[in-house]
Amino acid sequence: MMYIERWWGEYIGGTDDTCTLIDYLVDREFESDIPTEINVKNIFQDFQLNNAREIKDLRQTKDIYFIREKGFFQDIGCVINLMMDITAIILECQKSGKVHLTDLAGGIMDKNAVISLKVEKEELALLRGILDDFIHHPLSYDLAEFCPEDDMREIAKQCKEIITELNM
Hints:
Layout: H1 16-26, E1 36-39, H2 40-46, E2 65-67, E3 73-75, H3 79-96, E4 99-100, H4 101-104, E5 114-118, H5 121-136, H6 149-166
Parallel strand pairs: 1-5
Antiparallel strand pairs: 2-3, 4-5
Protein backbone atom coordinates (compact mmCIF):
# COMPACT_ATOMS: atom_id res chain seq x y z
CA MET A 1 0.00 0.00 0.00
CA MET A 2 1.30 3.43 -0.92
CA TYR A 3 1.65 6.09 1.73
CA ILE A 4 0.05 8.61 -0.64
CA GLU A 5 -2.88 6.35 -1.47
CA ARG A 6 -5.36 8.61 0.35
CA TRP A 7 -4.66 11.39 -2.18
CA TRP A 8 -3.58 9.47 -5.25
CA GLY A 9 -6.08 8.58 -7.93
CA GLU A 10 -8.83 11.15 -8.12
CA TYR A 11 -7.64 14.74 -8.15
CA ILE A 12 -3.95 14.04 -7.69
CA GLY A 13 -2.62 11.20 -9.80
CA GLY A 14 -5.79 10.68 -11.77
CA THR A 15 -5.48 13.01 -14.74
CA ASP A 16 -4.32 12.82 -18.34
CA ASP A 17 -1.28 14.79 -17.17
CA THR A 18 -0.54 11.98 -14.71
CA CYS A 19 -0.48 9.56 -17.63
CA THR A 20 1.96 11.85 -19.42
CA LEU A 21 4.23 11.95 -16.36
CA ILE A 22 4.08 8.15 -16.03
CA ASP A 23 4.90 7.78 -19.74
CA TYR A 24 7.91 10.00 -19.11
CA LEU A 25 9.00 7.93 -16.10
CA VAL A 26 8.53 4.61 -17.89
CA ASP A 27 11.02 5.66 -20.56
CA ARG A 28 13.89 5.09 -18.09
CA GLU A 29 16.10 2.03 -17.88
CA PHE A 30 15.15 -0.25 -15.00
CA GLU A 31 16.75 -3.12 -13.16
CA SER A 32 14.76 -5.75 -11.32
CA ASP A 33 13.24 -4.15 -8.18
CA ILE A 34 16.17 -1.71 -7.79
CA PRO A 35 14.85 1.84 -7.74
CA THR A 36 15.97 4.00 -10.62
CA GLU A 37 16.86 7.39 -9.19
CA ILE A 38 15.39 10.28 -11.12
CA ASN A 39 16.37 13.85 -10.33
CA VAL A 40 13.42 16.25 -10.10
CA LYS A 41 15.63 18.96 -11.61
CA ASN A 42 15.89 16.79 -14.75
CA ILE A 43 12.12 16.36 -14.86
CA PHE A 44 11.72 20.14 -14.77
CA GLN A 45 14.26 20.53 -17.57
CA ASP A 46 12.75 17.78 -19.68
CA PHE A 47 9.29 19.38 -19.37
CA GLN A 48 10.66 22.82 -20.29
CA LEU A 49 10.02 24.17 -16.77
CA ASN A 50 13.50 25.46 -15.99
CA ASN A 51 12.71 28.95 -17.33
CA ALA A 52 9.64 29.80 -15.23
CA ARG A 53 10.35 33.31 -14.00
CA GLU A 54 7.66 33.59 -11.38
CA ILE A 55 5.35 31.09 -9.75
CA LYS A 56 2.29 32.92 -11.06
CA ASP A 57 3.63 32.24 -14.57
CA LEU A 58 2.64 28.62 -13.96
CA ARG A 59 -1.02 29.38 -13.36
CA GLN A 60 -1.69 29.04 -17.08
CA THR A 61 -0.06 26.20 -18.97
CA LYS A 62 2.05 27.18 -21.96
CA ASP A 63 4.56 25.02 -23.80
CA ILE A 64 4.95 22.35 -21.10
CA TYR A 65 5.94 19.10 -22.78
CA PHE A 66 8.63 16.49 -23.13
CA ILE A 67 10.02 15.08 -26.32
CA ARG A 68 9.71 11.34 -26.74
CA GLU A 69 11.62 9.28 -29.23
CA LYS A 70 11.54 10.36 -32.87
CA GLY A 71 10.68 13.95 -31.95
CA PHE A 72 7.15 13.16 -30.74
CA PHE A 73 5.96 15.83 -28.29
CA GLN A 74 3.84 14.80 -25.33
CA ASP A 75 2.36 17.84 -23.68
CA ILE A 76 0.83 18.73 -20.34
CA GLY A 77 -2.67 20.19 -20.26
CA CYS A 78 -2.48 21.79 -16.79
CA VAL A 79 0.98 22.28 -15.30
CA ILE A 80 -0.44 22.34 -11.75
CA ASN A 81 -1.44 18.68 -12.22
CA LEU A 82 2.18 17.82 -13.02
CA MET A 83 3.44 19.74 -9.97
CA MET A 84 0.94 18.08 -7.63
CA ASP A 85 1.81 14.63 -8.96
CA ILE A 86 5.55 15.19 -8.64
CA THR A 87 5.13 16.47 -5.08
CA ALA A 88 3.00 13.49 -4.10
CA ILE A 89 5.54 11.08 -5.59
CA ILE A 90 8.33 12.86 -3.69
CA LEU A 91 6.34 12.31 -0.49
CA GLU A 92 5.93 8.61 -1.31
CA CYS A 93 9.66 8.29 -1.95
CA GLN A 94 10.49 10.06 1.31
CA LYS A 95 8.17 7.79 3.30
CA SER A 96 8.80 4.50 1.47
CA GLY A 97 12.14 5.08 -0.23
CA LYS A 98 10.70 4.17 -3.63
CA VAL A 99 7.53 3.80 -5.63
CA HIS A 100 6.43 1.14 -8.11
CA LEU A 101 5.09 2.72 -11.28
CA THR A 102 2.41 0.03 -11.41
CA ASP A 103 1.04 1.49 -8.14
CA LEU A 104 0.90 4.95 -9.70
CA ALA A 105 -0.71 3.71 -12.90
CA GLY A 106 -3.40 1.63 -11.23
CA GLY A 107 -1.94 -1.68 -12.32
CA ILE A 108 -2.38 -0.97 -16.04
CA MET A 109 1.34 -1.34 -16.71
CA ASP A 110 3.13 -4.59 -17.25
CA LYS A 111 6.58 -3.10 -16.70
CA ASN A 112 7.85 -3.72 -13.17
CA ALA A 113 9.55 -0.35 -12.81
CA VAL A 114 10.60 1.12 -9.48
CA ILE A 115 11.71 4.73 -9.09
CA SER A 116 13.01 7.05 -6.42
CA LEU A 117 12.81 10.80 -6.94
CA LYS A 118 15.81 12.80 -5.83
CA VAL A 119 14.96 16.38 -4.97
CA GLU A 120 17.20 19.27 -3.93
CA LYS A 121 16.22 22.16 -1.66
CA GLU A 122 15.83 24.46 -4.66
CA GLU A 123 13.26 22.23 -6.34
CA LEU A 124 11.43 21.62 -3.05
CA ALA A 125 11.22 25.38 -2.52
CA LEU A 126 9.83 25.84 -6.03
CA LEU A 127 7.24 23.10 -5.51
CA ARG A 128 6.23 24.52 -2.16
CA GLY A 129 5.85 27.98 -3.68
CA ILE A 130 3.72 26.66 -6.51
CA LEU A 131 1.49 24.58 -4.23
CA ASP A 132 1.19 27.46 -1.71
CA ASP A 133 0.10 29.74 -4.53
CA PHE A 134 -2.41 27.13 -5.69
CA ILE A 135 -3.72 26.68 -2.13
CA HIS A 136 -4.38 30.42 -1.83
CA HIS A 137 -5.51 31.06 -5.43
CA PRO A 138 -6.93 27.80 -6.82
CA LEU A 139 -9.40 29.54 -9.13
CA SER A 140 -6.56 31.45 -10.83
CA TYR A 141 -5.22 28.22 -12.34
CA ASP A 142 -6.27 26.90 -15.72
CA LEU A 143 -7.42 23.69 -14.00
CA ALA A 144 -10.41 25.72 -12.74
CA GLU A 145 -11.73 25.76 -16.32
CA PHE A 146 -12.32 22.00 -16.01
CA CYS A 147 -13.27 21.58 -12.34
CA PRO A 148 -16.10 23.00 -10.26
CA GLU A 149 -15.12 25.48 -7.56
CA ASP A 150 -15.80 22.98 -4.74
CA ASP A 151 -13.45 20.47 -6.39
CA MET A 152 -10.77 23.13 -6.75
CA ARG A 153 -11.02 23.90 -3.03
CA GLU A 154 -10.82 20.18 -2.21
CA ILE A 155 -7.72 19.82 -4.39
CA ALA A 156 -6.17 22.83 -2.62
CA LYS A 157 -6.94 21.19 0.74
CA GLN A 158 -5.22 18.00 -0.36
CA CYS A 159 -2.18 19.98 -1.54
CA LYS A 160 -1.97 21.61 1.87
CA GLU A 161 -2.03 18.17 3.52
CA ILE A 162 0.76 16.92 1.26
CA ILE A 163 2.91 19.99 1.97
CA THR A 164 2.36 19.46 5.69
CA GLU A 165 3.35 15.79 5.39
CA LEU A 166 6.51 16.76 3.53
CA ASN A 167 7.36 19.38 6.17
CA MET A 168 8.07 21.74 3.33
